[in-house]
């Protein structure tokens, strides 16, 4: 029997990259999947087509909007009647050091990376079934010994995510809900590689013992574990998935 048969998962940022790979992986394990996406209509439809319209739904919306989170949950309940897995995968990766961060940069990044997951969880919890799973996304860069100054704004948001996981494990545990985070290392996604030259990417690869970037599918394997019954005694944890980088 598929490990997630009878389960319904919501995944934000589900039309590409790690979100898409996770949607396909959970569907392979038997879950019905609702993805939220911002603008990639073609990618979202590809996910639905791959899984099948009876078992998948794509909802257009902004992960940083509380109103759109309400709509996402409403659509999921109308389509499938329940929510068992909540994966707040959508994210923004601004390259901003202290001197070059505007107030708008700060607000936009916080909205997508912190406010969005925070209120998505708040809105979803009343509808989550017993033994539900919540998974957030951090980054291995929170744990490496050296980090480049332009990652300041991004890492400020991911530090907040890790503290949310730590505290919400205590808050949601009595309800039988687990919450964990996956902290990927450099991963071969459009968001990560955008604007980076081959030389820069090769330098990054040299920092990883296996000498390569991770793949979205490899990150999705960890998402699948945290979504499964096998992770029932794991909560409040951050799993670094980075090929030994940190």
UniProtKB/TrEMBL annotation:
The cross-references to Pfam families, in alphabetical order and at most eight, read: adh_short_C2
Its recorded name reads Uncharacterized protein
The family note in this entry says:
Belongs to the short-chain dehydrogenases/reductases (SDR) family.
Classification via InterPro entries: NAD(P)-bd_dom_sf, SDR_fam
Keyword vocabulary terms for this entry: NADP, Oxidoreductase
Question: SUPFAM superfamilies this protein is in?
Answer: NAD(P)-binding Rossmann-fold domains
One MF term from GO for this chain?
Answer: oxidoreductase activity, acting on CH-OH group of donors
The highest taxon in the source lineage is: Eukaryota
Tell whether S-adenosyl-L-methionine is among the UniProt keywords: no
What Gene3D superfamilies has UniProt attached to this entry?
Answer: NAD(P)-binding Rossmann-like Domain
Question: Is Lipid metabolism tagged as a keyword?
Answer: no
Supply the source organism for this entry: Penicillium vulpinum
């Amino acid at each position: 029997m598929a490990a997630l048969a009878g389960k319904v998962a919501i995944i934000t940022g589900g039309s590409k990259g790690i979100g898409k790979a996770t949607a396909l992986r959970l569907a392979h394990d038997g879950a019905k999947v609702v993805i939220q996406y911002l603008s990639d209509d073609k990618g979202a439809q590809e996910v639905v087509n791959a899984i099948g319209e009876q078992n998948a739904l794509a909802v257009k919306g902004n992960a940083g909007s509380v109103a759109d989170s309400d709509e996402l949950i409403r659509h999921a309940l109308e389509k499938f009647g329940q929510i068992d897995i909540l994966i707040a995968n959508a994210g923004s990766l601004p390259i901003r050091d202290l001197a070059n961060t505007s107030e708008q940069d700060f607000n936009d990044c916080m909205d997508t990376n912190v406010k969005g997951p925070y209120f998505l969880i708040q809105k979803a919890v009343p509808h989550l079934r017993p033994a539900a799973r919540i998974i957030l996304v951090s980054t291995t860069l929170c744990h490496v010994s050296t980090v480049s100054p332009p990652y300041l704004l991004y890492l400020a948001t991911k530090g907040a995510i890790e503290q949310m996981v730590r505290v919400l494990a205590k808050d949601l545990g009595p309800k039988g809900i687990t919450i964990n985070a996956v902290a990927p290392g450099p991963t071969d996604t459009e968001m990560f590689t955008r604007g980076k030259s081959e030389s820069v990417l090769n330098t990054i690869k040299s920092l990883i013992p296996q000498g390569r970037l991770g793949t979205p599918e490899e990150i999705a394997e960890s998402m699948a574990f945290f979504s499964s019954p096998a992770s029932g005694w794991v909560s409040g944890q951050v799993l670094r998935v980075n090929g030994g980088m940190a």
